[in-house]
Sequence to fold (124 residues):
Amino acid sequence: QDQLAESGGGAVQAGGSLRLSCTTSGYTFTSACMGWFRQAPGKEREGVAAIGRSGSTTYADSVKGRFTISKDNAKNTLYLQMNSLKPEDSAMYYCASRRSGTWFGCLAVQYNDWGQGTQVTVSS
Fold:
């Protein structure tokens, strides 16, 4: 299993911003899909944002207009810029990759490799 490592989580007040980073190997960075997922206590894991090899992006409705997924090819790093944070955004955030290609959008498919997660806590 390839290694993915998230960073950038923390505690912030509602309305604030955070940028999450996910460092990967160069091989992992060529994956068909890379995405950010989150899970809060008592809730199912949900896809937040994903980016395909073509550069196309997909977002959950709850974060559209507030979050932006991007990648830096030179650094093999995936980012999630989170603005206008709300208490309901509080969760453990995970970076993940899917190695094989897909005919479906990257938020609708299974992922192979996962990071350990970084905690985001938004207070009201």
Notes: The chain has one helix and eleven strands. The first helix runs from residue 26 to 29. The radius of gyration is 13 Å. Helices lie at 26-29.
